[in-house]
Specification:
Elements lengths: L1 H28 L13 H19 L3 H38 L3 H13 L8 E2 L5 E2 L2 H6 L1
Antiparallel strand pairs: 1-2
């Protein structure tokens, strides 16, 4: 009986410790999150994207000249909207960076500059196997 209660206490203590480690790690790593998409891409942009997808599906099912013209017009409108939306976002971001320069927040300035110059960088997982060959396949990397 004593061993059973000791094991339960140890398991409960380990669960508490594990939970504390996860919350502390989340708080400390939450300082600078990776950005997978920009905030300028909102619900209205998703509407344009869906409209473009529908026009493309309609053209693929019936490749007539009317559907081709419709696809061209929808693509043109969507790209123009995306371009203008992104320009407005970048103008606001530049103004924000100007403000950080005036406030002498140099670290935030360089983070903003790196965000512009580097953009989204995808992660590449490359591992060497036993033969010193590079393995890039995700399943092989996980197996290694």
């Amino acid at each position: 009986m004593e061993n059973l209660s000791d094991r339960e206490d140890i398991n409960r203590a380990w669960e508490n410790t594990e939970e504390n480690i996860k919350t502390i790690a989340k708080e400390s790593l939450d300082l600078h999150k990776l950005k997978y998409h920009k905030s300028w891409f909102d619900e209205e942009c998703l509407g344009f994207l869906d409209q473009r997808k529908q026009a493309k599906m309609q053209w693929a099912q019936d490749p007539s000249q009317g559907n081709a013209d419709n696809l061209y017009n929808v693509r043109h409108e969507a790209s123009r909207y995306f371009r203008n939306k992104k320009k407005a976002y970048l103008r606001a971001k530049f103004e924000e960076l100007k403000l950080t320069v005036r406030q002498k927040k140099i670290r935030e300035l360089y983070r903003g500059i790196n965000d512009f110059t580097k953009g989204y960088l995808s992660r590449t997982n490359i591992v060497k196997n036993e033969k010193s060959d590079l393995v890039t396949d995700s399943h092989s990397v996980l197996a290694k």
